[in-house]
Protein: ABC transporter permease
Organism: Bifidobacterium asteroides
Amino acid sequence: MSWVHRMLTVANVSWRSSMPAGRPLALLVSLVVVPILDVVCQLMLGGSLNSPALARIGYAGGLVTAACQVATVMASGMTMDREEGIISQVLIRRPVDLAYWIGLGLPGVVAASFTGLVALAGTLVLNVGHSPSDFLRALSLLPTVLFAGSALGIFVGGLGLLTADSFAPLNAVTVLLPVAVGVVVPAEAYPVPLRWFATNLPLGVTVQAVEDYGLSWTAVLLAEVIRGLMEIAIGLAASVAALRRIRSGAYLRL
């Protein structure tokens, strides 16, 4: 019970410290308006490129955005804890504290569940003429995306502890990932070496599965879980490395 209590406490503090939490208008904008505008921009970009699969762009973009939102919430919470000196105390007491990381990610998972649903529904409404089965297909991939975003959050959060700028790994991932995994231009159009690289990136298989019905939901989930566990291991290893720096006196404050 103490583990669950600590996790829920971290989640509560993380949510209350987030900018939209105490502002209803900001909450409405971040959870509804921004996802819809993202969908509109993605569909317009696809239309300007004469893409024949605008629905795929909207659904893939919504899923990747949801994953990046989870990672962003986790990295932002970690940065605030770093500035307050909390993260160093957490690492000293428990070098691998899953309750802390899961609690840090829970608000992001809840928010991304809603924004992801809004983005997918917005694609269904704004891009008429495609089958509703595409919407259901993308919707079935949303839980996998939430797990992938949580793993990505631990990954970039852990790496951020080793850098002077905690947001540097997060910014690199959120900017490059949508392009790399083929949200607008499908990975199938990439040269063979880049195609293999894009498919093996986080969310690469998920984006491919939006249009490829030959990939089963379980196969996508298994691929993302295996990749996510590797990301979690790297992120936690980076946090342990940061702890060693604290104990060696390399820096006193993360």
